[in-house]
Structures are given as C-alpha cells and as structure tokens.
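note to self — DONT lose this again. spent like an hour looking for the file last time. sequence + predicted structure for the chain T wanted, 160 res
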Amino acid sequence: MRIYLGGPMFTRAEADYNLALTSRLRNAGYSVYCPNESEPINDKSLPAVSPETIYAFDIAALEEANLLICQVSEDSGTNWEAGYFDCLSRHVDPGRYYGVLGLATDMRLQTRPDAGKTGVENQAFHVNALVAGGLLSSLGVCYDETELFARLANIRVERE
C-alpha cells in the first residue's frame, strides 16, 4: 500500500515528526511519500520552484498513492490534498484510491469544550465541520499512532 503523508511541514518540529512517522510507516512495510523529502520542490529559493510546480508535483504524488493520511490541522494545503484525494476515492477509482484517514494527535482535541467560554478562552480545538465530515465519511479518524497503525493494518487486510 502506498501512503501519502499529508500534514503541516514548515517548522523543524513538524518536519521532524513527519520524517519520524514516515520512517515508522516504512518499517511497518508501507511505501510512503512524505513531502518533506521532496527535494525537487523544497528549496523555495530556486526560481523554478513556483506554486504551480509544487502543485503539479504533489498532485502527481497523490495520484500515485492508495491512501492519504491527513494530519488534522489548520494547514490549508493538507486540507486541499484531503479534498482532492477524497474525490479520487469517491469518483475516480474507488478500487485504487482507498480514501483519507485522519490522524488527530493535537492534545486540544482531547479537551471537552466549555460552553461557558468562547473564542481563545475555550481550549478545545475546533476542526472545520466540512473537514471533519469528510474524514468521518472516508476512512475515519485515529487519535494516536497506535490506533493509526492498527487501522492501516485493517485497511491492508481489507483492500489488498
């Protein structure tokens, strides 16, 4: 199974997490595309690296994948990838494109909302309802890596 790992990738901590998770996925026998490893498009100082180049490169990688892991975040690029991949899995080739599996490790998602607090005072993390609905309607959401690896193993058995 070929996995596209979608998620925020711009800080050192995000990149380190993505690379560590990619390594663990590969050690479990999965083929993984991690955008942090995309040498041709990661040096944004090069004149040839434009938004259109990045888009074309990442779309090609999405279309080579069977499954997208979407790290639930506020990253608009990841949400774009999830929507694109959801369309592939629903309308293009459901046999080849399995769907989108959410990985929601943000600790604020473990916090119950407090109706007495609004805005920044409420520590519960809000996930856009369209994104949440899409993930729940596709392959679901995992809240830690143990759950993620168990769900991937089940998908592998079901689909391959």
